[in-house]
Design a protein that fits this description.
This is Thaumatin-like protein. By secondary structure, the protein is of the alpha+beta class. It is built from 5 helices and 15 strands.
Length: about 220
């Protein structure tokens, strides 16, 4: 094999190791609630977390469109099939797709523009469990919390068993869902924003709700912080 080919293989492996291993992110998902929460994650699957338990999830560099969320009121059989009251993902313990609203979301995309991670807490799918989503390394310290009693204060039109729906889920209109890409805050979105000012309250709520850290940062997601 030629020297140039050896060098080419070496540099290719170096790139794979650099981006695939050195910059992979770890997400430590902890349940501080006084009840069991079944964490859902795409990518990652799912895990039952009793009070005080933590699930450490390693996620590849470059992952985007990813989310972690709490599921409540779940029952699964020995094969991992069942149902959750909130956040259910096709009746599976090991989620292969996103959860059904209402569910509080920790969303992220790793190593994107300028090698930055983008992360947020979103209430666009409603709310079921209070959450903290924060960096834990790389000198990045600005985290996000949504700990208000949204379930207890939820407007009656948005109430759901075990949670509080976003108005898009209930009314399915462009005013709330922003399907046309042109929409503004509403009284319902202001209900969420006033209680969790750092979280997405409606789909166009980018300016005050998206946060960044350098690529390679690790994170924690805490239910009931």
């Amino acid at each position: 094999m030629s020297l140039s080919k050896n060098l080419s293989i070496f540099f290719s492996l170096s790139i794979i190791l650099c981006f695939g291993l050195a910059h992979a992110a770890r997400f430590d998902i902890t349940n501080n609630c006084p009840f069991t929460v079944w964490a859902g994650a795409v990518p990652g699957g799912g895990r039952q977390l009793n009070r005080g338990q933590t699930w450490s999830l390693n996620v590849n560099a470059g992952t985007k469109g990813a989310r972690i969320w709490p599921r409540t009121g779940c029952n699964f059989d020995g094969s991992g099939r069942g149902r959750c009251q909130t956040g259910d993902c096709g009746g599976l313990l090991q989620c292969q797709g996103y959860g059904v609203p209402p569910n509080t979301l920790a969303e992220y995309a790793l190593n994107q523009f300028n090698n930055l991670d983008f992360f947020d807490i979103s209430l666009v799918d409603g709310f079921n469990v209070a959450m903290d989503f924060s960096p834990t390394s790389n000198g990045c310290t600005r985290g996000i919390r949504c700990t208000a009693d949204i379930n207890g204060q939820c407007p009656i039109q948005l109430k759901a068993p075990g949670g509080c729906n976003n108005p898009c889920t209930v009314f399915k209109t462009d005013q709330y869902c922003c399907n046309s890409g042109n929409c503004a805050p509403t009284d319902y979105s202001r209900f969420f924003k006033s209680r969790c000012p750092d979280a997405y309250s409606y789909p166009k709520d980018d300016q005050t709700s998206t946060f960044t850290c350098p690529g390679g940062t690790n994170y924690k997601v805490v239910f009931c912080p």
